Amino acid sequence: MTTPDISSPTTPATCRWWTLGTVAIAQLMVVLDATVVNIALPAAQADLGFSDGDRQWVVTAYSLAFGSLLLLGGRLSDLIGRKLAFLIGLVGFAAASLLGGLAVSFEMVVAARALQGVFAALLAPTALAVLTTTFTIPRERSRAFGVFGAIAGAGGAVGLLLGGFLTEQFDWRWNLTINVFFAAIAFVLALVFVPAASRQGPRPHLDIPGTLLASAGLFALVFGFSHAESDGWDAPLTWGSLVASAVLLVAFVIWQRVTTHPLLPLPVVVDRNRGASFLSVMITGAGMFGVFLFVTYYFQLSLAYTPMQTGVAFLPMIVMLVIAAQLSTNLLLPRLGPKILVPAGMLLAAIAMVLFTRLDVDSAYLDALPALLTLGFGMGTIMPAAIQTATLGVDRRYAGVSSAMVNTSQQVGGSIGTALLNTLAATALADYVAANQPASDAVLADAAVHSYTVAYWWSAAFFAGGAIIAAFLFRRKRFSVASAFHTDSTEAPALAH
């Protein structure tokens, strides 16, 4: 089968937009899978009979495999060609999802979730790399990254909505099996619309030592924060993993400086705008995943919403996020640049967190709505601008690994934020109960809301700090897609994409 060269601006735009649709399906599948299973966990636990202590591994298995293998997945897409990597990722993710949907034991579910994470680590950076190398016309690129950024920001909330619907109307297994249908549609579209370009120049090599150091370091990092969430920061396995992660990642950076074929070429990271973008995505991930968690608790436990009602409650935020994403990438980013836009989005998100702190046990949904709308607009301002800047002007040979850094930043940020906020909230809850004995139902309800409030204040601090960092690090130079790709075209020949 021949495919059109849709990376060329002379090719009909329809082909490029079909590519965007294909990439969007794959990205949504990967992002929502981090939260869609959360809603199904109680039903899965009752069906398969695993303990509360084991339950976390259904989530952790996915994040460990995903987070630790992202850099390898991004580099593989550069080496074997992005179309082949994309198709392999889709098939593998669908097979792993089907395995999970048919699981008859706890061990089978955990294995399936780990396999999902493995293939998501190949699929997510490849999808973004395909988008990066396909859309080079400035106006089209802005629109495409607006859509992609909206999916990256709203995927968690969409997962809650979809998970609630499938769990209530069908069965918990559909939260995994539904991916087979998404993957099948994306696979057919990818065969037709994702280009398979021929390789030019010598075949590159895979950095095996760098791969081992990076994967082990990222695994230890995600595992350490995940373990802190369940066993506390003073557990030997927690701090031991984090120390090991620091040693391994420092060794990785040193190795990247001296090796001939680095897994992550350092110029990809040390560019000031890209470095600022990666940090912004990580900080946003830390605040975003924590907020979804505690606002979900508030809706379900304090307001007694069903899983489906909880998902619907997030819809205004998603709508506002999509509107802001299109407005920021098409109108504001070309005029203002990321130095103004990203900090502004961070400040909006911080304001939203402060608004969430006003909620109490007697609040209604309308009291939470202003915070949801503000958060949606802030996220829609941050994510598309940061992601587009992070992949702008990257040598096409490194588009995959650069895209992997975006996903790695979000994943690591989510792990750090969830662990930190959970620990802080749990401590606040225990302190509140201890100070308000006896622990009646009313006291426990107030304690839960108090713990959420502490998490919101810390999230506000994350975003406020992110605003300062972004304002300081991003360059003042005017944002220009056209000039970036003009510069890129003079670099080394592109590899298969």
UniProtKB/TrEMBL annotation:
The UniProt record lists the keyword Chloroplast: no
Keyword vocabulary terms for this entry: Cell membrane, Membrane, Transmembrane, Transmembrane helix, Transport
Membrane spanning stretches: 20-44, 56-72, 84-106, 118-137, 144-166, 172-194, 206-225, 237-255, 276-299, 311-333, 340-359, 371-394, 415-435, 455-474
Superkingdom, taxonomy of origin: Bacteria
UniProt-listed InterPro entries: EmrB-like, MFS, MFS_dom, MFS_trans_sf, Sugar_transporter_CS
Localization of this protein: Cell membrane
Signal peptide: none
Domain Major facilitator superfamily (MFS) profile: 19-478
Topological category with respect to the lipid bilayer: Multi-pass membrane protein
NCBIfam families in the record: efflux_EmrB (TIGR00711)
PANTHER family: BLR6921 PROTEIN, MAJOR FACILITATOR SUPERFAMILY MULTIDRUG TRANSPORTER MFSC
Protein known as: MFS transporter
Taxonomic placement: Bacteria, Bacillati, Actinomycetota, Actinomycetes, Micrococcales
